[in-house]
Design goal:
Structural class: alpha+beta
Helix content: 40-55%
Distance between the termini: 24 Å
CATH architecture of the largest domain: 2-Layer Sandwich
Radius of gyration: 20 Å
Largest sheet: 8 strands, mixed
Shape: globular
Strand content: 15-25%
CATH class of the largest domain: Alpha Beta
Length: 361
Amino acid sequence: MHATTVRAPAKLILMGEHAVVYQRPALVASLGLWMHATVRPRPKDGVELRISGWGHSEVTSWPAIRAYTDAVRARWEEYAANPTAETFARLRSNEPTHLIKIALGEAARRAHMAPHPLTLTVKSDQPIGAGFGSSAALGIAIAQAFLKAHDVSLSPDALFDVALNIERRQHGTPSGVDPATILRGGLLWAESEEGALTWHPVAARSPVLSDMRVFHTGSPNESTGTVVDAVRAQRANDPAAFEALLNRMETATRTLRDMLSASEVKPADLVDTIRESEACLEAMGVVPPAVRTHIRAIEARGGAAKISGAGALTDPSAGSLIAYHPDPETDIWNDLSSFSEFDVPLCVSGAHSIDPLHVHG
């Protein structure tokens, strides 16, 4: 066993969130906010967890991690068989190391090995609850660091399966878009083919992608799983209206893909496409009034904005927000001054190992 650090990017759903859960396409990009996980040999027994930024550290054991992982797996199987608010509530945990233990346990299970004592250190640039896929990035960074430190190599499909199982313990029945994007990096087209979600790289030729700005409106009151369940209930109440929304979202998502693949884009067309996607998300009830107010102000001045990710059911925040205006010199960004902006690149590389000495903070 040797020291290894893996860093995993964030992800940003440009268009198609929620629709992708119902076998409709989504366009997703990796985002240059990084989750770092460093695994080092520990000279004495136990597993030491150091979570920088969360103010948490503890020492546990591999038997305890395996027992925790197995117990949560059993609760997830209960939820998958009977997806109700009650079974979902039993799945989640407020324990700060919930996903960390699961990531270690699931990686060790797939490696079919007796793991060594180790120290795991986690550091992150990614805000929690922003729609940036921080839970998937956390699971992937930890699982890959553990496997690489033990010189275990998995196929891309096997690694995705590990990452998806980790993500399920947090979000119930996720689409798989988050771990797929974080593992692969770049710009991805996610689409259902013969009942299974597949991913294809998209060559972004249009420079307009760099004109999109990314904000964080604040962490939502509700978890991703809770919002997804609320949307599922809306679908059950009015299947025909919901299907019409999905059709509109799919058209907008395909239009955006074609725009980004083209060398030239008409700004007015991009504004219309972003507005259409946002209108569908609002119809689904996942954009709370406070965030809608900011979006209306941007639209009134010729721009467009949409939430990215699950969104929220109640005020005041809804996670991440994408905004665009045809005039890069516009001062409309003052309307979003209460939000945090992330001036980081899109379409960065997927999760990969780096020298542990290069991790700071």
